[in-house]
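Objective 1.3, modelling of assemblies. Example input:
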Amino acid sequence: SRLTMSESDDDKPLKSSKKEPKPEEDDDDVPLKKAKSSKKENVQSQVKEENAPTAAKESKKKKKTKRKRGDDDDDDDDDDEEDFDTRKKKAPAKKEKSSKSSSKSAKTDGKGQPKKPKKEVKVEPVYEWWKDEQPLAQGKKWRFLEHNGVIFPPNYEPHGVKMKYDGQIISLTPEQEAIATMYAAMSRTDYAGKDVFKKNFWKEFSEKLGKNHAIKDLENCDFQPIVDHLDAEREKKKALTKEEKLKIKQAKEKTEAPYVTVVLDSHLEKNGNFRVEPAGLFRGRGEHPKMGQVKGVIQPEDITMNCSEDACPPRCSLPGHAWQSLVHKDEQTWLAFYKDTINGEFKYVFLSAGSSLKGQSDREKFEKARELKKHVARIRQRITQGLKSSGLEMQQNTALWLIDNLAIRAGNEKDTNEEADTVGCCSLRVEHITLGTDEEGPTIYFNFLGKDSIEYKNLVKLRPKDEEKAKEGEENPCVSFVREGEEKNFRRVVENMRSLTSNSKKPSDDVFDQLNTSSLNTYLKDLMPGLTAKVFRTYNASFTLDQELYKLEDHPEKSSFLRNDATQLKFYNDANYQVAILCNHSRAVSKTFDSQVEKMDEKIKGLHEELADLKKKKKSADNKEQMKKKIANLEERISKQETQKQIKLKLAGVALSTSKVNYLDPRITVAWCKRFGNFPLNKVFNKSLITKFKWAIDEADEDWRF
DNA sequence: ACTGAGACTTGGAATAATTTTC
DNA sequence: GAAAATTATTCCAAGTCTCAGT
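Predicted structure (C-alpha cells):
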C-alpha cells in the first residue's frame, strides 16, 4: 500500500507542485525525531529533579519491570531517557513499519536542504497506538500514568491605579482592586452593556467593598483609570523588541516544559490543558444568568490528582499547599480535576487531542457511526412505522426523524436559573415551531437557540419541482429540502408536529412533552447496541462528506475541478460546507467584514477599468499578440478575485473547522486526497489535525469508504 | 423511574502566529 | 516594513451521555 503521508520526506510546502506523484508534507519524520529527544530530556530531567528522587526512581523501576512483562524487547537498564528513546525509535521499526519505510531513516538524515522560505509543516510526534496490540483489560485506560500535575497562574499583583467614584479618587484593597480590574478588562466587550452582567458583578463587588463603603453603586463608578492602565500595559508588551518577546516566550516554555509531556504506560504523551484557569469574570454565552460573577482562584486544595499507584505523584508547586487528594483511577483518562466556582462544574485536565487515549476514542466514535450506517435503513423503517402511532411512540419517532434528518442535538433539560435557555430536539418548545404551507406542500420553520445560544433557523420544505426555485433554495442556508424518499414521512411528521403544537398548548410548553433524552436513548439502544442520539449527527455529517466527495468521481466538470490545487480545494470545501450547514456550525462575521468586501469590490472594479483600458489600447497597439496575452492574464486575475469574493461571502457566517475536528471521519478525507493525485493533505488538514488524525492517515487508502 | 455526580465530546471566541498586501 | 488579513492555537463554556444510588 502506498502511503502518502508516511513516505515522503519532503517537508516543503508543496506549493509549486501540482500533482506530481510526490506526496507533500510528511516532514513528520524529521521534526518528529528532533522534538522527541528534546522533549524527553525535559520530562525526564524534570521528573528527576523536581520530584522526590527516591520516589521517582522507585516508580521507574516498577514501571520498567512492568514494561518488561508487557513487551520483552526492552530491557536496557540504564536510565530512563535512554529507555524512552530506544522505545520510541524501536517501536516503529520493529513493527510493521519496516515494510514500507526502509527509506525512512535515510530520508530523515538525507535532507540538508536550505531553509524553506515558507512555513514548515511540522507534525508532533505521536505514539502510534494503532500499531500496537492492546492488551489492556476491559475498561482500563492505562497501566501506568505519571505526570507533574498542573501549573497555576501567577498571583494577582496590585497595580495601585485608583478608580473613581462620583468623580472622587478611591483607594481599594488589593482584593477589591483585583475584581475591579477584571471588570475594567471587560469594558470594551459586549458584556459591559448587559444588565445581568452588571448586576452580578455589582453583587460581588459591593460585597467585597463591605458596608458603608464610599462606592454605593456601579453607575457612578469610573474604571477608566484602570482601563487606561491595562491599555498601557498591553502597549508596553507590544512595544517589546523581537528579542525580548522571544526571551519571554522561551522562559515560559522552560517553566512549562515539565507539564507538557506525561508518561502513559511505556511511552510519552502530550498533555492537554495543564494550566489552571485564572480567576476572572464569568463569560457565559447568550443570556447566561450568571455572567459577570467572579470565577474564583483555584487552589491546590481544590484539585484532585490522578496517577498510577506506582508512579511518582505530582508535586504541588505552591509552597505550603497540598492537593485535595490523590487517586489512582485507571478506568479514567483524566489527570486532574477541580470544580469551578460558578456552577460547580467539573474541569478536567486531559491529554491532548493527538494522544492515544483521545485518538482511540475518536476512532471508536467513527466506527460506531459506521456501524449505524449498516443499520440505518432498518432503523429508518422502524421510525417510519413509528410516525404513524400515537402517544409516546409517536413522539419518540417524530423526534428521531428530526434528529436524523436535520442533525439537531438531543436536547437535555436545563435549569434556566443556572444556565442560558437553549434547546435541542427533546426540549423544543411550541414557540420554536411554525407550521405552514407553500406551493410544494407543508413546511416547518424552526427558530430556536441551540448550543452556545447559536440561532437555528431553518425552513424545512419539500424540494420544488421547478429547477430554478430548487437551486435558489439550495443556496439559501436557512432553507432545507426534505431528503429524497422522505417526502411522505415528512408530511406525517408535519401532522404529528401539528398535534404536538396544537392550540391546547402554550407557546412555552414542550413539543415532546413525554420525552427526554434518556428515554430516547434507551429506545435507540434497542435499535442498535451503543446507539445514542448524537451518533446520528456524526453519521450524517460523515456520510454527507463521503457522498459529496464521491460526486467528483464522475462529475461532468471533473477536469475543471482537477485543474489545480485551488479548484480541487474548492471542491472539497464545498463538500465541507454542506456539512457545516447541516450541523449549523456558525461563527461571528468579522466586524470589518463589510469594509473588506467593499475593498474587494473596489479592487475588482479597478481591474475592470484596467481591462477596459487595455482593450482600448490594443486597437492601436502594434504588438497585438502581446496585448492579447496581457488581456487574458488580467481576465484570469479578475475571475480569481471574483471567486475569492464568492467564497468569502459564502463562508461569512459559517465555520468549517468544527465539523472537521469533530464530525467528519478523517479517513474520508485521507482517501479522497489519495484518490485524486495525492492531493496535499495539508491543504485540508492543518498541523493539529494531521497530528490528531495520524491514525487515519495511516489507515485509509484510496478506496476506503465510510 | 428519577436524580445528581461524573466523565467525556463538542463549540465558538479570543488570542497568537503567520502570510499577504500595500 | 507595517498594517491588514488569514490561519492556527488556546481557552473555557456548554453540550451529551453514563452510572450509581434511591
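The domain at 163-239 of chain A is CATH 1.10.10.41 (Arc Repressor Mutant, subunit A).
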